[in-house]
Amino acid sequence: MFANSTSGVAVEWAPDTLRVKELEEQLFSMHNSLVCAFNQLLDLKDLNTGYHSTRLAEWGVRVAQELGLEDGVLRDVEVAALLHDIGKIGVPDAILKKPGRLTADEYALMKKHPEYGWAVVRLFPGLERTSFFILHHHEAYDGTGYPGELKEDEIPIGARIVSVIDAFDAMVSSRPYRQGLPFEEAMRRLDLASNKQFDPAVVRCFISIAQAEMPSVFAATGTSTSVVL
Ligand SMILES: [Fe+2]
Question: How many separate domains does the chain show?
Fold first, then answer.
């Protein structure tokens, strides 16, 4: 039996409770290492947007908080936001880095990446829900997405959040063959696709958080134009 001395209240903890807490901490630490390792893989494959992915994951967690999701889900949203495209490692570079339009066959292969990501991440104890957020991050709110053509609340909430984050990241990030969109234009396009591609509640939350944080993003990056991410 152990006393909790920090609270000043004599609470007795059974050894079993401490053992569970210890195991939870070990699992949490293992998940952190795993996320870091997968992030390294994304970097090696040039699939990461650098520190932007961390910022976007933070905004994803904030959206989840605003929507009142429970603590356990927040962590899953964060991991899914960081690793949602891990399955692209299974897509050939010739397709991933092709500057022009993909053929129908190439696009079909590209669309496999959510399933590839799910198949890997689901193998880790405690990341089962995260794996479903990854599996469904290309579903559309109106049911026209993939792989399951799920609609509205059928789509796991974490996947609906990652979907908005992913689209925003794709719009504002510059590629060798095109300049990223200005922040305000990306916001406008997210709003336009609300209720079609995206969950309107998620879009509203994300826009309000992103707009509130823009001044600090400008300051942190030293950017003076409207293309800040
Ligand atoms: Fe994706």
Answer: 1
Q: Is 104 inside a domain boundary?
A: yes
Q: Is the residue at 9 inside a domain? A: no
15 Cα: distance to centroid of ligand 1 (angstroms): 44
Place of tokens 């989840």: 64
What is the model's pTM? Answer: 0.83
Share of the chain above pLDDT 90, in %: 53
Q: Quick one: average pLDDT of 165-185?
A: 85
Beta-bridged to residue 194, according to DSSP, are 198
Q: With the C-alpha atoms ordered 73, 193, 172, 88, is the resulting torsion angle positive or negative?
A: positive
Q: Report residues near ion ligand 1: CB below 5 Å.
A: 85
Is residue 11's pLDDT more than 80?
A: no
